């Protein structure tokens, strides 16, 4: 299985997990010239932009820590663009979550409101 195929499988697993937690799936792998968003979900009134990460080792801080400042900037810009092109900018409460899978057993770690617009 290629790295890309593994990534897509992990993202499907994340989507399944979040749906089981009560979120509604909106879109996967949203791409624009400003960046990419792995999953877009609905959680009550919130539109949730989810970054999915997986690491087999906790070295260097694990999967969640791999979402760098630069990566957060790209996600925020892509999310802002998504909101704009869908005419949701002033109306839609949103948040940024990170869902990570850690270790060989793929332990789930869901960080709600992992970061904000303070880039």
Automatic annotation (TrEMBL):
SUPFAM superfamilies hit by this protein: Restriction endonuclease-like
PANTHER family: UPF0102 PROTEIN YRAN
Family statement drawn from the similarity comment of this UniProt entry: Belongs to the UPF0102 family.
One Gene Ontology term of the molecular function aspect: nucleic acid binding
Highest taxon listed in the record's lineage: Bacteria
Protein's UniProt name: UPF0102 protein LHA_3245
UniProt cross-references to NCBIfam families, sorted A to Z: PRK12497.1-3, YraN family protein
């Amino acid at each position: 299985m290629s790295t890309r195929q593994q990534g897509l499988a992990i993202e499907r697993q994340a989507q399944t997990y979040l749906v089981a937690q009560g979120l509604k799936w909106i879109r996967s792998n949203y791409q624009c010239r400003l960046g990419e968003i792995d999953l877009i979900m609905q959680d009550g009134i919130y539109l949730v932009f989810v970054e999915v990460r997986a690491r087999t080792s906790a070295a260097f801080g694990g999967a969640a820590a791999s979402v760098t400042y630069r990566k957060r900037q790209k996600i925020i810009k892509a999310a802002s663009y998504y909101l704009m092109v869908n005419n949701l900018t002033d109306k839609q409460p949103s948040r940024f979550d990170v869902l990570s899978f850690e270790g060989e057993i793929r332990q789930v770690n869901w960080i709600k409101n992992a970061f904000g617009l303070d880039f």
